[in-house]
Design brief:
Layout: H1 6-32, E1 35-39, H2 43-55, E2 59-63, H3 69-76, E3 80-84, H4 92-101, E4 107-112, H5 118-129, E5 135-138, H6 143-156
Parallel strand pairs: 1-2, 1-3, 3-4, 4-5
Length: 161
């Protein structure tokens, strides 16, 4: 029989479908690889961060809900998490502990108005918990500094800026 048996064709079709599904999964992974989640109570700062991240080709999400931020981290798997210190209903050290226990390996950017006394403690907590060293950005947000940071990190993810 020319072209092989029907069993051979069936196996080839199954293999093709499986490879197609694997390609879809890798596309999903690539798509997820450039998400950014902003957890910040200040709408002006959130707006600046979101606009810059979108210009740098990140799929961007924002929340002010301190109780639900870990659910969003689990669901969205963001490569970058921007955390505003001083957000109501949120304890930065507690959030960082939850991130570490969940195995989060992305970049944490901490946004604050000044050098609060707890900033050194929060950074030390990051290191002790096994998280990547956080990047600190002060308000008012330096747009060029944030853009450079996002572009640099985005290039590590093979994103165009």
């Amino acid at each position: 029989m020319i072209g092989g048996s029907s069993a051979d064709r069936s196996d080839a079709e199954q293999k093709s479908r499986k490879e197609s599904k694997m390609g879809d999964a890798s596309n999903d992974q690539a798509h997820r690889a450039h998400r950014l989640l902003v957890f910040e109570h200040d709408p002006e700062a959130t707006n600046i961060i979101v606009k810059l991240a979108e210009r740098c080709h990140f799929e961007t999400f924002a929340t002010t809900d301190g109780r639900g931020v870990m659910n969003l981290v689990s669901a969205l798997e963001p490569q970058i998490l921007v955390i505003g210190l001083g957000a109501p209903n949120a304890n930065a050290s507690e959030l960082l502990s939850l991130l570490a226990s969940s195995g989060y390996q992305g970049l944490c950017i901490i946004v604050c108005e000044h050098t609060p006394p707890e900033l050194a403690r929060v950074c030390e907590h990051c290191r002790a918990a096994g998280l990547n060293e956080p990047t600190i950005i002060f308000k008012p947000i330096d747009k060029s500094l944030l853009r450079d940071l996002l572009v640099e990190y985005g290039h590590g993810l093979n994103l165009a800026a």
